[in-house]
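Write out the 3D structure for:
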Amino acid sequence: MKKSIYVLGTLLSALMVLFSACEDDAVNASREAIVPEISIEGNSVIVWERGEQFVEPGYTASFAGQDYTSRVEVKGFLNVNKTGSYPLKYIIKTDDGLFAFANRLVIIPNNAPSPLASGAYGIDGTKSHRINAAGTVTTYGGNFSIYLYQTANDGEFYVSDFLGGYYDQRAGYGSSYAASGTMKVDQDGNFTLIDSKVPGWQDGLTGLSGSISETGEISWSAIYAGMTFNVVLK
């Protein structure tokens, strides 16, 4: 009888430890699931007229069901009197050291004459395609869109995604996986890469060639991670 009681007591103790561990795991999982959230209102890419005072479209932040908007810090420099592209970063950090961020790009376009018109372009889904290292061709496009805006008198253009939305929009990874950057457009409509970056992978293009054809078709071939992205705009 004593042996039975001892075994039962040992079993109950083990169960209590197990349930306690499960509770701790549940509490920890609950805590880990509570993270700050931040979102920007309006578009992530804004084109603003030079010389006009910038009006912030707005943003919101929350944490554990509470409004944290007043704790958002906006980092970045914006000169509305000078053409260019200006990244803004919205950051929220909690007392526990948790943080979240969002990005916005403000473009002050240059309206100097250029063979390439500034604006939003679609991706031709019948012609745009990626060729991977194995030679496999993947066609993409359709409802994707990218932005091209002249930011300097010498034909320097900001491009929101040299990959034509392949990872950002097709794969749904978001703008951190777009290859944004700048290129030079000469008076004959030829493109030369200046710089590029894919923030999510901390790398960029290794090559770019493109032009505006005699029929007005805008296209380029971007080399990235051993793959070729042939992008045709519409």
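Residues 1-12, 26-31 have pLDDT under 50 and may be disordered.
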